[in-house]
Automatic annotation (TrEMBL):
One of its GO terms (molecular function) is cyclic-di-GMP binding. This is PilZ domain-containing protein. Residues 39-110 form the PilZ domain. Transmembrane segments: none annotated.
Length: 126
């Protein structure tokens, strides 16, 4: 599988973005039996097609588990379902790469939120 880690538009946060996640066995059928309790994670970087998150939880990504992410970049809450593509063990937790399915509306929402966030950070620096 080809990963898009080097795609041209990837925003890395200076301070990680707080988020919550829930594991889903099947991205198409969301019943209570298929969703775990919410866990806390941090978004390290994001693009319109995926994220890198950090959490203290070990997740067996080889079990075809999907993940529901809930976060706010600037003002609009974003809820996405993605698929784990890689994992790395870190000293105090784990990093995971998550791809999002192609969705023009969601991609545009992420881009607009990042632009707004960036504009605000530039105005604060002036």
């Amino acid at each position: 599988m080809h990963y898009k880690r080097k795609e041209s538009f990837r925003y890395t946060f200076t301070e990680p973005c707080k988020a919550t996640f829930r594991l889903i066995k099947d991205a198409n059928g969301l019943s209570e039996k298929e969703i775990s309790k919410k866990g806390i994670c941090e978004i390290i970087d994001i693009s319109p097609h995926g994220v890198k998150i950090f959490t203290e939880f070990s997740i067996a990504i080889d079990k075809q588990i999907h993940v529901e992410l809930n976060f706010t970049l600037d003002e609009s809450p974003i809820d996405l379902i993605g698929e784990f593509v890689w994992s790395h063990r870190k000293i105090n937790g784990y990093e995971y790469g998550i791809n999002f399915p192609e969705d023009t509306n969601t991609e545009q929402l992420i881009i607009n939120e990042l632009k707004s966030l960036r504009r605000k950070s530039i105005n604060v620096q002036k």
